[in-house]
Design a protein that fits this description.
By secondary structure, the protein is an alpha/beta fold. The chain is built from 22 helices and 19 strands. The strands form four sheets. It has a seven-stranded mixed β-sheet with strand order 8-7-9-10-12-11-17, with helices on both faces. β11, α17 and β12 form a beta-alpha-beta unit. α5 runs parallel beside α6 and α11 runs parallel beside α17. The longest helix has 28 residues. The chain is elongated and about 95 Å long.
């Protein structure tokens, strides 16, 4: 009992110091969210100084417990904890939010002890679920803690992740809700009704604990109970807290969100805290509780280059020059081959495995297949969690449905996470399903992500080989856009593809125009080529299989040799697509550029009808060329 009392007193002192340092840092910055830090300080103190098993000198230790701050605006209190663990010094803490500081206003990987880029609320739980799944797959015993705010529980992405965490029995996942009642502009949807929050998690299959989030002893006892429990369920702690806790003048009062204290107020504010927590302020450290090193000799898994030989693929006959294959199917074949060669490759599906052909992977590498059902936001979050634990995840769904998860993709871009994404059923060429199923914004969306690459294969060979390139790209997000219809194979099996390159597939000394296309419109361009050839009109054609980064040198050189004229043709809206990408890099003002794209609202119909309606078929290409020249 004496030892427990000593520990509780120590943690109370730490919580006080976390409050003090959170206020000092945000005051020095004159920006930030001190009141959100004050409500979370007691829980952070208990986790970081009593429960977190963490190799302080090695944040990449594969068996470290993980802590994700989903309510990213409270990051100063976490930085304060790392200060008291000796990772940063006081001078560094007080540079919070400065341009040259790693301690940004919301968590980013510039500070290597941040687990994930967060701050867009509602995303931490899915990322944590991905990390918890990794622990299960690797037989590691680390725990994943996620601190959420009660306000972000209004986000549907939280409940997508909650259901999947229950489905996969992630009993190594602990969610803590800092239920401080107040959001940015007013009360959160359920105020302080902690029972209502607990009931929601119960319905989703979680075990729950309602606690006083400012009672250190109750926090410690509850966390210890959870860690001793062998339940198969994930756990949610709903902690009733007060925003601004410790300062009577602002505690539990609206209107103080994101408002740092004035510099001239600082001494008065800190004196109020020391008076409020007198015993904690008087405490002198007798014992320093530090995180325990995890019991693991597991080594960090490094990404090794994965090479594929299409000639040795069991499905190699699909890639013969006289065959047709949908690029989505070729993607599925490549994915299965990659999974058999590299145990770190995972595939994550959104209930469309029989359309994206990720079912090929599931059949051959079932242990690394994760079904996320129709929960695209959670799918991307789980993929992000796996990336952060050194896995190589591919997440696939219809390209149109990835728009639902754009925020998760955007945040993964901020985190520099190497997600591999496949969007199938792109463009109007999918036909009868109609516009709700057509990816017509995806190129724009993916091009806008920093460090991303955007790939658009036109045949089975390129789809297969570009999938392999994605598996080896670790600098950011990679996206492959696949089509529904089967298309003829254009390349031999030994053709080489590279990121940032393109292919000139038609060229002569008398070319009147350079046509740049990819996917289904490349095949329409080839049809146009054959018709124009009959009229003794020749054009060059570029297969733009890599839309980002672009091979500017080859594009410009080919255009100059093609009468200084370019026509881009794409099964995508004009905004942010291939046409705009090309126009944005061509600096030669003598080169004229015309665009064909999806300019009318599409509808259900046969693919050939829709290509004609949108004027991106062979006939439209011929008409555009004849007018242009």
């Amino acid at each position: 009992m004496k030892a427990l009392n000593e520990k509780i007193n120590f943690l109370k002192n730490k919580a006080l110091n976390l409050r003090i340092d959170s206020i000092r840092a945000t005051t020095a910055s004159q920006s930030g969210h001190p009141t959100s830090c004050l409500s979370a300080a007691d829980i952070i103190a208990a986790i970081f100084f009593n429960f977190l098993k963490y190799d302080i000198e090695n944040p990449n230790n594969p068996n470290n417990d993980r802590f994700i701050l989903s309510k990213g605006h409270a990051i100063p209190v976490v930085y304060a904890a790392w200060k008291h663990l000796g990772i940063i010094n006081d001078k560094e803490l007080l540079k919070l939010r400065e341009f040259d500081s790693e301690l940004e206003g919301h968590p980013t990987p510039r500070f290597k002890y941040n687990e994930a880029a967060t701050g867009s609320l509602g995303q931490g739980l899915a990322i944590g679920a991905g990390m918890a799944i990794n622990a299960k797959k690797e037989n590691l015993n680390y725990k994943t803690y996620i601190m959420m705010g009660d306000g972000e529980l209004s986000e549907g992405s939280i409940w997508e992740a909650a259901e999947l965490a229950s489905h996969y029995k992630l009993n190594n996942l602990i969610g803590i809700i800092d239920c401080n009642r107040l959001g940015q502009s007013g009360e959160s949807i359920n105020d302080h009704n902690t029972k209502k929050y607990a009931a929601k998690f119960n319905v989703f299959g979680w075990q729950t604990h309602i606690i006083d989030g400012h009672n250190i002893e109750e926090i410690v006892t509850t966390l210890q109970t959870i860690l001793n429990n062998n339940t198969y369920k994930p756990t949610a702690i709903i902690a009733k807290t007060y925003k601004g806790y410790g300062l009577y003048d602002i505690e539990d009062k609206n209107g103080f969100h994101g408002k740092p204290f004035k510099i001239e107020e600082l001494d008065k504010i800190l004196n109020q805290l020391n008076q409020r927590f007198k015993q904690a302020a008087k405490y002198k450290n007798k014992t320093q509780y530090m995180p325990l090193k995890p019991n693991s000799h597991a080594s960090i898994q490094k990404h090794s280059f994965t090479n594929l030989d299409i000639e040795n693929d069991p499905n190699t006959s699909f890639f013969d020059l006289d065959k047709k294959i949908a690029t989505r199917k070729a993607f599925g074949f490549a994915l299965a081959s990659l999974g058999k060669k590299n145990k770190n490759i995972f595939t994550i599906d959104g209930d469309v495995k029989n359309s994206t052909y990720t079912e090929n992977f599931e059949k051959q590498v079932p242990e690394n297949f994760i079904e996320c059902f129709i929960a695209e936001q959670a799918m991307i979050g789980i993929a992000t969690g796996l990336v952060l634990r050194n896995k190589i995840p591919f997440a696939a769904t219809f390209g149109a449905f990835l728009t639902r998860a754009h925020d998760q993709i955007r945040m993964a871009g901020i985190g520099k996470n190497a997600l591999r994404l496949c969007g199938s059923h792109c463009g109007v060429s999918i036909g009868e399903d109609g516009p709700s199923q057509m990816a017509l914004e995806d190129i724009s969306m993916m091009r806008s992500i920093p460090n991303s690459i955007v790939l658009y294969p036109s045949d089975g060979i390129s789809a297969y080989k570009l999938t392999q390139l994605m598996s080896n790209y670790n600098q950011g997000i990679s996206y492959i856009r696949t089509t529904r219809p089967a298309t003829p194979n254009l390349y031999k099996k030994n053709e080489i593809f590279e990121i940032g390159k393109c292919k000139i597939i038609k060229k002569s000394k008398t070319d009147k125009v350079c046509v740049i296309a990819a996917g289904i419109t490349l095949h329409e361009s080839l049809k146009a080529y054959e018709e124009l050839k009959k009229q003794n009109i020749y054009i060059s054609i570029i297969d733009l299989y890599c839309i980002k980064p672009l091979d500017v040198e080859i594009i410009e050189k080919t255009a100059i040799q093609s009468n200084k004229k370019i026509i881009t043709v794409e099964d995508h809206y004009p905004q942010g697509g291939i046409g705009e990408a090309i126009s944005g890099v061509i600096n030669n003002q003598t080169i004229q550029i015309e665009h064909l794209a999806v300019n009318k609202m599409p509808r259900s119909g046969k693919p050939e009808e829709l290509l004609a309606y949108e004027q991106i078929n062979a006939k439209a290409i011929i008409n555009k060329i004849l007018k242009f020249i």
